[in-house]
Specification:
The protein has about 240 residues and is α/β, with parallel strands linked by helices. The protein is about 50% helix and about 15% strand. The radius of gyration is 19 Å and the shape is globular.
Length: about 240
Amino acid sequence: MNSNHSIKAIFFDLDGTLRHSVPTGGDVSTDYVVGLGLRVNAEDRLRAARWEHLYWANSVDLRDDLLAHSGETENFWIEYSRRRLIALGASPGWALEYAPKVSAHMGEMYKPESIVPDDVRRALPELRDAGYLMGVLSNRDKPYHEILASHGLNEFFHFSLAAGEVDIYKPDPGVFVHALKRANMTARETVYVGDNYFADVVGARRAGLRPVLYDPNGIFPEADCATIKSFDELKSVLEAL
């Protein structure tokens, strides 16, 4: 059993935490935009990455876009591209003009590989053998059992929950409450590990869980919580909480 008796369970985010898309959509989109003539520096890339995390954390902008473009996938992604171009430093006019082209390029050319990083594969069996109950909580709309199975991850988790199953999305604390009920755990004895500060850290704290931010690229250098850059660091962080 784990030596930290106060922590009995670890819940993980899925996308960007356990499972990664390589290369990232942000990198491919930005490289394409640079080819179109937009000047982009490291600070611009970081700002756009932070914006992406905020947008996908069930933001008002995301909800507005889903409502405005319900059933119109093409228009949704054009609007997403426009918003991201502005976050990247483009003028509103430039973003409006080039958003359709960027969206079309991504739809046609972006074919990422889905991987589980080596540090994740090292950490999961170690944490399981230490006695932690583990689960996966994602803001996906639908269950993702097949994704976990295809990556050989099912054996490590007692449950998985898609926010769409209960129609409550991170950072709303309600979805964490549903996960705790599935695991029969209390918030005080549960840690949540995720890569999105706005969805994962904020949401976990609202529900009373202890957050650990997985931030390998330093997107949130000012994060006011336990932070890891590699899953190799996770066990020692858990023991220190």
